[in-house]
């Protein structure tokens, strides 16, 4: 068992490291327009660059997602940090679409490795606060990455390099510090066998996962759209040319989500899921209204509402399933959860990017939003049919 001081310092370090990986994942978002101008590629290519990140992340979750259950947490965290540092160097030197794709592929694999092992390590360190940190840190990370990158692109020199150098230095410090952490699991046999692509959901968690999945799919599909096409959509709908707009929208989405998670941290999972589905449907409807009225203030308000739904839905899904895993099942369950989440994160946005070629960005957004509203309302109706607290039986202990 950790001492209270050691446990607290480990929790802080793990949370900051998880936040850093997600900050790096959103750092390219405000820069996509600059990349498009410099390299002359279409919205479909943009969503491909975005999508290969998520697909590579999925490949990592399916192969190395459970590796830390066998090798220990520290060596896997260290390996993920080294890969992420290499990805940052690829971004710094990216002068073509091929370089951008290579950087995103490597970054996706590193992030997939990191999210599963850091999520499991957070649960090892503090089972009460672990699910909360697992929910909040990714959202705050995406906010910091998008907003910080946008600010540097707008006001600092080297807009396509500086953010990645800052992140490289942060990951280097974390790689040096990680060996000071106490190891939270003992080595187990079967490391090679764990690399075989598989999804492991403990039987006791399967029903809760299926009930929470529609809301989880909707919230991650919104996130994927914002991190790929939202900056282009705002430019098309309002005519704004500021590099800060795209990063600010991502920050509003994710910070409002994080605040909602914190405010609902002691509420049952089923209530969080129902609130998430409701706010998400309202927020998406407001976003569509903002697009057709070319209203930037309404766009930000709508993003605030949708972000609150994102946070509530994400927390409800996590708290429904994660407490139902035993210690040796946690990394595997985290991997399965993120596989399903990131499929929703990348596939709809890839489809949307391709549809823009035929229908244009505005019409594609209308269809995308309509599908998500229907999914959210359908999930809400199904959740309302369930008995209170039935989602995970021990919702209050999550």
TrEMBL record:
Stated name of the protein: MFS transporter
Residues in Major facilitator superfamily (MFS) profile domain copies: 9-387
GO cellular component, one term: plasma membrane
Record has Manganese as a keyword: no
Residues passing through the membrane, by range: 42-64, 76-92, 98-123, 135-156, 162-179, 208-230, 242-261, 273-292, 298-319, 331-352, 358-381
InterPro entries recorded: MFS (IPR011701), MFS_dom (IPR020846), MFS_trans_sf (IPR036259), MFS_Transporters (IPR050171)
UniProt entry keywords in alphabetical sequence: Cell membrane, Membrane, Transmembrane, Transmembrane helix, Transport
Record flagged with keyword Secreted: no
Membrane-topology descriptor: Multi-pass membrane protein
Chief place of localization: membrane
């Amino acid at each position: 068992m950790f001492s209270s001081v050691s446990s607290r310092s480990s929790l802080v370090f793990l949370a900051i490291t998880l936040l850093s990986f997600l900050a790096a994942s959103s750092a390219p978002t405000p820069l996509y327009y600059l990349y498009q101008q410099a390299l002359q590629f279409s919205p479909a290519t943009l969503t491909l660059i975005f999508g290969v990140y998520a697909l590579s992340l999925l490949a990592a979750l399916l192969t190395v997602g459970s590796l830390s259950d066998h090798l220990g947490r520290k060596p896997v965290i260290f390996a993920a940090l080294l890969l992420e540092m290499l990805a940052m160097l690829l971004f710094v030197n990216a002068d073509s679409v091929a370089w951008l794709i290579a950087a995103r592929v490597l970054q996706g694999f590193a992030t997939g490795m990191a999210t599963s092992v850091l999520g499991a390590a957070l649960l090892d360190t503090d089972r009460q606060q672990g699910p909360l940190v697992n929910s909040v840190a990714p959202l705050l990370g995406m906010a910091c990455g998008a907003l910080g990158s946008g600010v540097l692109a707008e006001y600092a020199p080297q807009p396509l390099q500086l953010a990645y150098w800052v992140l490289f230095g942060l990951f280097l410090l974390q790689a040096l510090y990680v060996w000071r952490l106490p190891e939270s699991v003992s080595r187990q046999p079967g490391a090679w066998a764990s690399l075989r692509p598989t999804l492991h959901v403990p039987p006791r968690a399967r029903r809760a996962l299926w009930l929470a999945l529609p809301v989880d799919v909707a919230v991650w599909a919104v996130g994927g759209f914002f991190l790929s096409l939202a900056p282009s959509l705002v430019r098309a709908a309002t005519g704004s040319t500021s590099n800060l707009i795209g990063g600010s929208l991502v920050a509003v989405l994710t910070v409002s989500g994080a605040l909602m998670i914190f405010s609902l941290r002691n509420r049952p999972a089923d209530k969080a899921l129902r609130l998430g589905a409701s706010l998400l449907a309202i927020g998406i409807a407001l976003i569509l209204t903002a697009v057709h009225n070319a209203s930037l203030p309404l766009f930000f308000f709508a993003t605030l509402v949708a972000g609150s739904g994102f946070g509530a839905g994400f927390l409800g899904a996590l708290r429904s399933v994660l407490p139902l895993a035993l210690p040796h099942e946690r990394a595997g369950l985290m991997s399965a959860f993120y596989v399903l989440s990131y499929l929703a994160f990348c596939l709809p946005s890839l489809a949307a990017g391709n549809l823009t070629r035929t229908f244009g960005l505005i019409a594609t957004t209308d269809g995308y939003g309509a599908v998500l509203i229907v999914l959210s309302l359908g999930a809400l109706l199904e959740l309302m049919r369930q008995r209170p607290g039935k989602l995970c039986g021990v919702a209050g202990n999550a």
